[in-house]
Amino acid sequence: MRRLLAGGATVLAVLIGLSGSALAQSAQTLPIPGYEAAKDVPGAKDLPDPSVTYKVVFDIGKAASKPDEVNPGLLSLVRYFNTLAKYGVPADHRKIAVVFHQDATDIVQNNEAFKARNGGHDNPNIALIQSMKKAGVDLRVCGQAVLSRKIDPQTIQPEIELDLWALTTLARSSHQRWSE
Predict the structure, then answer these.
(1) How many separate domains does the chain show?
(2) Which of 45, 62, 33 is nearest to 127 (CA)?
(3) For residue 173, is it within any domain?
């Protein structure tokens, strides 16, 4: 009996070790590199389910507190996206979009246009936006905000689509946005 328990403990230790190394490896290969996923919470009941298709639209209408800071809404989106991947949600089950409008609209501009509006500061969001697009995030900007802020549509980063109005884009349910 003692040998059976010892053998079971060894198997359990190996499984725990494999599980930990799988999560560690997953953290190294997150779809948006350089940004962490949510921290593990021992005993948490509701974890991302790889069998569920997550259809989420992020509404980003606030700017960062300083023009040389990455927009905090983008940081939340990336953390969520990487968390889904960390827990094994496949890429085709991560249907994530973002709509920029109001004060967040300036971050959609290329670096030259952003610098001209922000005291010579580089746009700190460009690399992250490019990584998000590469990972499969759908990026949209409100056309009404572009017009009201007098942004030349030619200066919008190519990863971002120009929509008529954030209200129209947000009103469309994420269920309608992506077909199965």
Answers:
(1) 1
(2) 33
(3) yes
Please report which helix (H) or strand (E) contains residue 97, including its range. strand 94-100
In this prediction, residues 45-62 reach a mean pLDDT of 96
pLDDT above 90 covers a percentage of the chain that reads: 76
Beta bridge partners of 163: 142
Tokens representing residue 131 in the block: 């990584």
pLDDT at 176: 66
* CA dist., res. 140 & res. 125, Å (int): 14
Tally: H helices and E strands in the chain: 7, 4
Alpha-carbon dihedral angle through residues 9, 14, 18, 19, given to the nearest 10 degrees: 0
**pTM for this structure?**
0.81
In a 13 Å sphere around the CA of 33, the CA atoms on its Cβ side amount to 5
Maximal CA-CA distance, the chain: 78
What is the per-residue burial (b if ≥16 Cβ within 10 Å, else e) of 142-159? bbbbbeebebeeebbbeb
**150 Rama class: left (phi>0) / alpha (psi -120 to 50) / beta:** left
Q: Check which CATH number belongs to the domain holding 135 and give it.
A: 3.40.1260.10
How high is the pLDDT of residue 24? 41
- Residue-range definition of the domain harbouring residue 66: 54-177
